[in-house]
Amino acid sequence: MWGPEGLDEVEAELLGPPEELKGRDVLELGAGAAQCSRWLAAQGARPVALDISHRQLQHALRIGGAFPLVCADAGALPFADASFDLACSAYGALPFVADPRLVLREVHRVLRPGGRLVFSLTHPVRWAFPDEPGPEGLSVSGSYFDRTPYVEQDESGHAVYVEHHRTLGDRVRDVVASGFRLVDLVEPEWPAWNTAEWGGWSPLRGSLIPGTAIFVCVRD
């Protein structure tokens, strides 16, 4: 799944036709419990699941899967140049780093010529709205152009969660400045069959404003 709307890779084929994934080396960034890598492995690909969170990778290890798990910073990938055919990230890594170009340039480095990067994240327009699934989530509460990070702190004042906002234009410029060619920008519509609410995502909001942006990039 690329996002809460329910768009899956079988339908979207953003990484390419599933039958062509067999034997491909794929890097999953911000893999969490490695759900995407597990699906890729089932298609015959050779995924590597990377996350900076050791705890998340422990979940992945408990669930199981015959592919490597790597605990590392996406801005300093521990791989040789041209190691992968594809890279992907579903709501991982990029929203949580202050300088996404560090990550994108590293991915560009480890991809082989012609390689593809596909990543999804919360649609930037959502930054201006409250993170609520009901009608209260449909009124603008802040500036879309305010790039101040969202930070949650513990009782000692230490940051425990940080998410960075980039406008849609910022994201496009980040992709291009990192050496990629942007070939598609997908904004999934909320399907009628999806009646679920999750966090700030819901059928009500999804039918009116975009919730996910998926960037499809190529390393020429």
From TrEMBL:
Record-linked InterPro entries:
Methyltransf_11, Methyltransf_Superfamily, SAM-dependent_MTases_sf
Per its record, what are the GO molecular function terms? methyltransferase activity
The biological processes this protein is annotated with in GO are: methylation
The source's domain of life comes to Bacteria
List the CDD domains hit by this protein, alphabetically. AdoMet_MTases
> Domain Methyltransferase type, which positions?
27-119
Query: A Pfam family matched by this chain, by name?
Result: Methyltransf_11
Q: Which UniProt keywords apply?
A: Methyltransferase, Transferase
UniProt protein name? Class I SAM-dependent methyltransferase
Upper taxonomic lineage: Bacteria, Bacillati, Actinomycetota, Actinomycetes, Kitasatosporales
